[in-house]
Amino acid sequence: MWATRRAHVLALVASVMGAAGCGEHPSSTYATYADAVAAGSVARGWIPVWVPVEAVNIREIHDLDTNEVCIRFELPNAARVALLEPMHKLPAEGIEVLPASCSLRPGWWFEGLIQQQPANDGALYADVFEAAGASTDAALLVAADSRGPSIYIWSR
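RESULT FIELD:
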């Protein structure tokens, strides 16, 4: 009986510890920027305040310990131009040395930038920019997909 009770306690502890570990990389999906604002993701700094209100199909994941954040959303062309215009575009040789992957590894993220891995079908062909962080002064990288409406933002 003691062995059975001990096994149940150990299983419960393992389950709680596993659930706690999953909570360190929370992720969210929002249909619109207004939905992200209403959920508090913008106020908490997980989604930058400078993301345009026209953003749709927003996905974000973040690390509670390191504050790393990875975001993907779609924008119509006019909003995309307005978003990227004030940002600093990185030169091609600067892109080659970037951490082009979200270390949190969400399934909706690209595998690498086309400039880094031209033979890789999972690579993203994009212009890459540098922008200020949301609630901190940390630099964020912004990749604008050259073949579609997607914008990617990740911690540098």
